[in-house]
User: Fold these one by one.
Assistant:
Number 1:
Amino acid sequence: MAARRALITGITGQDGSYLAEFLLQQGYEVHGMVRRSSTENFERIEHLRDRVQLHQADLLDQLSLIQLLRQVRPHELYNLAAQSFVPTSWAQPLLTGEFTALGVTRLLEAVRLVDPEIRFFQASSSEMFGAVDEVPQNENTPFRPRSPYAVAKVYGHFITINYRESYGLFACSGISFNHESPRRGKEFVTRKVTDAVARIKLGLADHVRLGNLQARRDWGYAGDYVRAFWLMLQQDQPEDFVIATGVQHSVQELVEIAFDYVGLDWRRYVRVDPALFRPAEVNSLLGDASKAREKLGWEPTVSFEELIRMMVDADLQRYRGQSSPAS
Ligand code: NAP
Ligand code: F7E
């Protein structure tokens, strides 16, 4: 039987690289959409380069998306591409809206035009819950977004549901809480901390500047989350799911665990910088993934402590020049 074809937008990002690995293990023919840049940015998928097929297109360019779908004719399409860093969304709100909100409609329009049988996954975000009304948050919790990023994701979420309801597309939205890994971008707080811990431990830095240490998040492991994305597209009916661990920590607890792990007292190295506080903060997020557990049989496998230690170890190895290509 011919292999199923999957197309991933955002394949060069953290989740895209894990999803590509996972789908290859499942026997898929994996295609990835990449945008043109003056230098290639394929670090996270370098170890997969001979097993995935990459195609240039851009979420800003409708025709490029249509042509891409015509060329690949995927059975499953995972939309992971976005401007995903919350602080940048205040500096570039319009661009964030173009990528993260309207980009979803452009892809859905391409699906509708080229092949409405394509199963579509949209990477929605717990940031949509924002200033939360209830704890923990589930699929029915109202959205009170607090950043241009979160507002754009709310649009992406509802346009996905709208195309399901209007045109009968198999379109699903996965509302993921924060998920991290050694491949997380260094601007996000977990990786910023584990990278700094490694540099401080090795004598390459003497402090790290952070913002709000009191913010609380439900942090999981990216490798677990991409499995849930896939499971959502294997169901009989398209539905939306919260993906979360159900365990919450503060940024300060993250810092304590990471510094403790290498035997350092965080208070000597962490400086709180008011410039890193956000214009509107999301103080606390905690997910209820009961529906994913029950209907998808999905469970996270990596605890927060294991995740942070995994990331510190990978950053130490990287600075010692011992990193493996897939770390
Ligand atoms: P990421 O590491 O920032 O990756 C984003 C990807 O989007 C990159 O491959 C990037 O390509 C691509 N991209 C950005 N703009 C594009 C454009 N105009 N055209 C084509 N590609 C473009 O993000 P991630 O952490 O893997 O997250 C994946 C998705 O899940 C994102 O939509 C994010 O908003 C969402 N999400 C993430 C989390 C989380 O905790 N990680 C939680 C909830 C939702 P370049 O390499 O060229 O920059
Ligand atoms: O911030 C606080 C910051 O940037 C987490 C994205 O993947 O998850 C991510 O968004 C918390 C915030 O992630 C620093 O104020 C303190 O409260 O790691 P982050 P995020 O904003 O939660 C969601 C689910 C997504 O969808 C997004 O795409 O940590 N914090 N000090 C800091 N954050 C950063 N970045 N840097 C600091 O120095």
Number 2:
Amino acid sequence: MYYNDQTIVFLDGQYIKAVDAKIDLYSQSLHYGCSVFEGIRSYKTESGETRIFKAKDHYERLQNSAAAMNIPFNYSVEELTEITYQLLSKNNLQDAYIRPLVYVPANMSFSPAKESHLFIAVWVMQPFFGEKLLRVMTSLFQRPNPKGFKIEAKAAGHYVNSILASQEAKSKGYDECLLTDIHGFVAEGTGANVFFEKNGKVYTPPPGNILPGITRATVIEICKELNVELQEKLFTPAELKTADAVFFCGTAAEVVGWESFDDEKFSKSWNESIGRTIQVAYKNRVTEKKVLQEKEEKVEKELLNA
Ligand code: PMP
């Protein structure tokens, strides 16, 4: 699914076949979850170009995650971006998922690494949730305590929490779950941030107990452009149940609406929600679709036909 005999990956300065890539089984990353990674997407734009969405933001976060985990990492954002475009081209991919991973060498102790390895893989991005609306449950798991982890780092070890919570939700017949923070306030999904709409305003939890997502930042930008009032605030799962509509957002998930939360439906249909407008705006933005131009062309055509 992720690679075949022909797939090329980037590993420590070289473009090699995925089937030839090797990792040291004594790596501290493998044993203790001490590695950092990113989840990035590239899109075929309206004009047919391949564009990595917010490459700078993702690679800066990778650098920050490595620094937070005391992992030495010296690639610049420009180098990383260039390598990724090369890799996409070598694999003939435009709509792709991009997975950079910074991991450390053999070390069975807890001492900091003196060097790191960089692995980047790309693969075809299948629609993650598509147009589907999600049935979400409140997870019994909470997000990691920010006093026990560098919660803002995208570190592999944190994802044990996501795996447990996601598996719990799926085993109970839900699509996804929502995790609270250690105080019982809504935090985020297993791999996505959450927003809700109530009386024409949009709300999302503030940074502190969440991974402040790059898609979340894009949604906030879109709200400003659309003149939608947005507020960061703490709220409980009970308050979320009174929402008019709810959605998750993340690089892989993009913007995806909820059908229900703990089996309770919302007052607005997704298609009439602000979230739906944001979903369309997000898709237009990542594919660089010129909406204004399109509208103008439509008006022009209508005039011609009149
Ligand atoms: N929260 C968590 C726990 C995540 O893993 C992700 C996915 N990276 C997100 C939120 C959304 O982040 P982004 O929009 O940067 O993909």
Number 3:
Amino acid sequence: MSNRVAVVTGGSRGIGRTICTELAKCGFDIVTCYTRGAQAAEETVSCCRELGVEAYAYQCDVSKEEDVTGFFARIKEQFGRVDVLVNNAGITRDDLMLKMSEEAFAQVIDTNLKGAFLCSREASKMMLKSKYGRIISISSVVGINGNAGQVNYSASKAGLIGMTKSIAKELGGKGITANAVAPGFIQTDMTAVLSDDVKKALLSNIPRKALGNPEDVAHAVCFLASEAAGYITGQVLAVDGGMSM
Ligand code: NDP
């Protein structure tokens, strides 16, 4: 019997790469995508293959409809199924609202929110055929609490939570669950740009008194992707050391 298939967007590094390898450890074949990091994405693929599963990485900008339809057409041709979709691809273009350009707002919404919509729509077509699916979107603590300097990013992450609940209501009767994972501050390229002072200030607001690792997020995703989580849908699982309490 062939493996189940997990599609993880933005798997070339950071949280996405770790989600790919942790899902591979659970026995999923992996398909991931990236925009620029072809070589890094191939490293993710190699790590997954070493774990004994099939893995592929394709260039696909999730904010572009033609890229996303092409990406899923390829997956359909290759595997004929998608069991798990992880909407992980995300960007930041931070600035205070008064200084934020329309372009910075649109870029973040298009990648983080529209991208997840386009991927969920295409993946669910295949999930509906098999009457089984797990759609997991990586939101953020700032989608729950907001954050100064991130009106675009927090709006996109809050939007993912609303979208997740709507998908859960639309597709719950068809064996498809939709959930969101809301990480706090996780050590990746995205947060490496923060100064030590900012990190220190953040730590003072985290009850667990530590920044998170990509593994912390990936383990939550693996649980929501599992058979064991079949009765959980429309939920937001915070992986934030208690930050959003
Ligand atoms: P990184 O910046 O380290 O990685 C982002 C990944 O997304 C890369 O693989 C990148 O590949 C890919 N990507 C970016 N834009 C696109 C696009 N348009 N189409 C396809 N792929 C794209 O981010 P993190 O690993 O830190 O974050 C992963 C997710 O977790 C994001 O959604 C982020 O918002 C969320 N998150 C992160 C937190 C953190 O503290 N790090 C906290 C809360 C949420 P390439 O460069 O090749 O395009």
Number 4:
Amino acid sequence: MVSRLVLVLGDQLSADLSALRAADKGRDTVVMAEVADEADYVAHHPKKIAFLLTAMRKFAAWLRAEGWDVRYTRLDDSENAGSVVGELLRRAHETGASRVVATEPGEWRLITALTDAPIPVEILQDDRFLASHADFERWAEGRKVLRMEYFYREMRRRTGLLMEDDKPAGGQWNFDHDNRKPAPGTIDHDGPLQFAPDAVTREVLDLVEARFGNRFGDLRPFGMATERSQARQVLAHFVTHALPRFGDYQDAMLRDSRYLYHAGVSAYLNAGLLSPMEICEAVAVAWAEGAAPINAAEGFIRQIIGWREYVRGIYFLRGPGYVQSNALEHDRDLPAMYWGGETRMACMAHAVAQTREDAYAHHIQRLMVTGNFALLAGVSPRQVHEWYLAVYADAYEWVEAPNTLGMSQFADGGIVASKPYVSSGAYINRMSDYCKGCHYSVTAKTGAKACPFNLLYWDFLIRHRPRFSGNARMGNMYRTWDRMDADRRETVLRDAADLLARLDDGAVI
Ligand code: FAD
Ligand code: DLZ
Ligand code: SF4
């Protein structure tokens, strides 16, 4: 029988990958390649590139130790073809292999490239997820609205996580009402475990610095896990030290505590160093042993078997056109402050500085600070999407696009979110300590010192009144506006228009 190439991509670093399971160790050749096309299709954060290339090199070494023939291409190899398909063709020529077996990539862009490649590529399901495309399609079939909560309950029943017979543990499916506490004064947790760079990591850091050092994003200090055993330590550290309080302060934001009690495992999970079930089982065990309360365990498990699986389902259900979505017809350019440009808004400055330094921000920073501002200001969702895809270490289109375009920007017209996630400054003030040090006043509703979120909030609602006034969950907002004094309403809209004009002129906001 003829030999095949087995493609392993940078976010497929799992021992039980379907392509590896389908291959013959004695006959087939694994292909792994660091290629410019994958680093450049958006301007990925240098830390993200360094993490993936280091993890790829270590995974390749592990595969070799397991007896695989691995052809590994480094970014600076002179023969490097520059693209995944180019590398497959080069290795096919070199080995005489006439077919490729691959696990489905997490982006349509690469699926199309493999499907169109001038060599037959067999694409297998990525069964590292709990719901297959067919499972999700079956669930979605005939439903008018695809709400995550109902999908999640099915996943609980299917996995048996936090189930007592056929009933949810604690008597409720969802404990979110216990999970919205404002920021506490202090946090007794330093965030995810960090690792001093070893020789492999240091070599990659030098390479990434030379090639991508001038991009947005700090490469150093670098403390990410880059192999499975380290990622397992990050998980164990989270379960012991942060999980018990994860639920309580899930939505809070603090200047001096970037992670609060969040896990910081998404980059490892999405690259394949951890599996969703092993994470959830560790959390369920902690709850069963009384080491974590139900609101923490349920809240955390819902993110993984609920949201994570659900957004992937939406991405593949809606097809390659999903990333073009722009239901609200927003077309403003992404302001320079997203790339580190100066801003007087303390919340935006904090979220962007943390993103630049860590390639990480937690969910509420992404949704209610950077996402909220872009939505209120009417920024082109395509540009917002490309920013999120580039700057976070955990970002691949299958997970990033439905979160950004659907949940955050309402660009899909309400498939993921039943109403737009917009708020005035009051929400940010309640959930964070950002406003204390801000140039703007969160209580000022008009005038030069008015918090930009306060002005743009009303401007957004009024601009989109025909679309949203009939939404039962938004009626209160419109009633509040209608009760406002007419002069005040005029001033709010005039100040908002002035703010947007200054934003377009490149003024510091
Ligand atoms: P924790 O808060 O500790 O949560 C635990 C885990 O749950 C995460 O590791 C993650 O795997 C999963 N999870 C939580 N929320 C979501 C969600 N909404 N969708 C999918 N998984 C979730 N997450 C990504 O993994 N990649 C992305 O590119 C990404 N882009 C986002 C863009 C926007 C605009 C928003 C609002 C959210 C995005 N998220 C994304 C979801 C979420 O912000 C991150 O998963 C989370 O911040 C990762 O940090 P953590 O591991 O500390 O998470
Ligand atoms: C994100 C990324 C980067 C920066 N570099 C590589 C690479 O050099 N080689 C590789 O195989 N994968 C890389 N990746 C991850 C891919 O972009 C990812 O597999 C696809 O986007 C599909 O999710
Ligand atoms: Fe952000 Fe407004 Fe608070 Fe300033 S006052 S930190 S702009 S919410």
